Amino acid sequence: MRWHASIRSKLTLTIAGISMLTISLGFVVVSISFYNNLKESLQNDAVSQGRLLAENSVPYILFSQAKQVESQLLSNTSINAPHSIAIFQGLGGVFAKTESGGGYIHTTDYREGESIIWDNRWLHVYQPINDSLGEQIGTLYLRVSTAPLEEKLGSFILTLALLLVAMVVLSFLLARGLQKYISQPILNLQSISHQVTDSENYSLRVPVVSQDEIGKLSHTFNDMLETIERRQRERDAAEEALQLNKRRLERAVKDLQYLANYDALTQLPNRALCMDRIRYALKRAGRTRTYAAVLFLDLDHFKDVNDSLGHAVGDELLKASSKRLQSLLREEDTLARLGGDEFVIILNEVEDTEDIITVVEKIVENFNQHFNLASYVVNSTVSVGVCVYPNDGNDVDELMKAADAAMYKAKEVGRNTYAFYESEMNELALRRHRIANDLRVAIDKGELSLVYQPQVDLKESRVIGAEALLRWTHSELGFISPAEFIPIAESTGLIKQIGMWVLDTACAEAQRWQDNGFNDLKLAVNLSPVQFRQSDLPEMVAMILKKYNLPATTLELEITESMLMRDVEQAIKTLERMKRMGLQIAIDDFGTGYSSLSYLRRFPLDSLKIDRTFIDEVSVDPDDTAITLAIISMAKSLRLKVVAEGVETFEQWNFLAQHDCDEIQGYLVSKGIPGKDFLVFIEGFSAEKVAATSGQN
């Protein structure tokens, strides 16, 4: 395995390692010398004590005074270590002995002659005892423990170890300082190399701190950087010139592409790009099975503006017209200028052809407003020709010809209008346009009216209220379905005025009922999405109730699931304001929207109205039966009343009554009744008459 440490680490470890090895060897030598000195000192002390005791014990042996030698001589030695002393007489018999931690002395411990013996635990000293004539009369045996020697050696080694640690730290610090002095120039060279590599900054230089080999290497490295820097500057200058030319070329290409595809005056797509966009729109419509519309627009009397006010004002009018048109379109739609005062609009992925009529009417209506140009106020209307893919053509040429022909048709009928290439669509657009115009005066002309469809309590089999239904009888067109004129009223903004008229008229009728003694009848009125989003709706309703002196509980406001789910938090706030007034709230056409049960729990509601599509075959179709029963069960769990709409047979009546539905309404009970006949109907109503009329028992 290769060692990849840095030079600094290697120098530090090498210097520190040599120092520590030298110090360690010295400490080992000192430790051995210290140990030998301890042994020699212990041995010398023991031998001296043995000789002294041997000389002094002669009289005691000669006079056989064993007790006295033990107490007076052997027990009074200066030996500090644990020891035992014995005097052997003759051939090894123990004459006297003392034990001071040196263990028991046996006759087997006897040795003849002078000797010194070391073992693991003891120092054994044998000293002959001679009389005055030199005859050996005994042997003195001294046994001394080596434990104190080992303790001193251990303390000495511990002291040396601590000193060794201090010396190691000191040698490491000295090694670091020494290696820094040696390696710092090399590290400077390495650091500059990395910086140059990372930043490509060739103006960096290595500091030269010495004139040795490393200093010369630094000089050479700096010369190399200077050469590279000079060549880099030359290359950068060439690269910058190349990039400048490249940017100029790209900008020129973009300018050419823009000029080839966009109108210089209005910045809109020009004819060429418009044709490409139409092809793309046709592909999208074919893929998604939707419609695509091409609108050909021409500004009315634009030539007169140019001739009378000048081309500069004409150009301003074209730019203002393009901005106004752009503001009326979706992001996915295209507005293009073909040239002169001609524009084309491409509507992508249109779900319903009536949506095209809404857009075109909005365009024509907006161009009835004047333009505030630099120094002039200019009035300029627009004529629009409309064609639809795939009804009016399958390719770009066919559709452009159709849209152009339709535009001239609009010019022929008097300008400031629009025309469809297809006659049926044109008739539909004309009818829609007429309905929108006539709806504005329908209230004043008295053509709008309300009828009241009774609502029956199933448990009591009596009429407990009604739903107000809006009707329009046109003076020339006759009866117009709410399904036709309500969406037009919503798209034109007339729904606010009509909605307030409905509330006012319905409350006036409710006051008449109460004046005739029918105080407990409730009246349900539908709200449109536009009305429900009005911030002052609760205040407007309160004002009408006060006008007719009606209690709030008389009025029930019906809203759809989609109205609630559009902005849940705002819907909750609006409903809570109306509930605090005492109004009743019902969800109309329940089951056809996308409301969530978790949200329904949060809405302050009073009742759910099951949509007629589930009631039609409620006792025939298993799916409709299951859905209806599920709605009833859910409503009951939420403590809400259940109202079934569209009840047309007595079989449906019985089914709903058996399954805990609260109220019903539909043609079985009655169609919408004019206000003047409603009270008469209530007085003559009975479940038996309904059953008899429907042919049921």
From TrEMBL:
GO molecular function annotations of the record: cyclic-guanylate-specific phosphodiesterase activity
Keyword terms of this UniProt record: c-di-GMP, Coiled coil, Membrane, Transmembrane, Transmembrane helix
One GO CC term on file: membrane
Gene Ontology BP term (one): signal transduction
Source taxonomy: Bacteria, Pseudomonadati, Pseudomonadota, Gammaproteobacteria, Oceanospirillales
A Pfam match: GGDEF
Domain HAMP, first and last residues per copy: 180-233
UniProt name for this protein: cyclic-guanylate-specific phosphodiesterase
Location of the EAL domain: 432-686
InterPro entries xref list: Biofilm_reg_signaling, EAL_dom, EAL_sf, GGDEF_dom, HAMP_dom, Nucleotide_cyclase, Rev_trsase/Diguanyl_cyclase
All copies of domain GGDEF, residue ranges: 290-423
Source species, domain of life: Bacteria
Chain segments annotated as transmembrane: 12-35, 153-175
Reactions that this protein is recorded to catalyse: 3',3'-c-di-GMP + H2O = 5'-phosphoguanylyl(3'->5')guanosine + H(+)
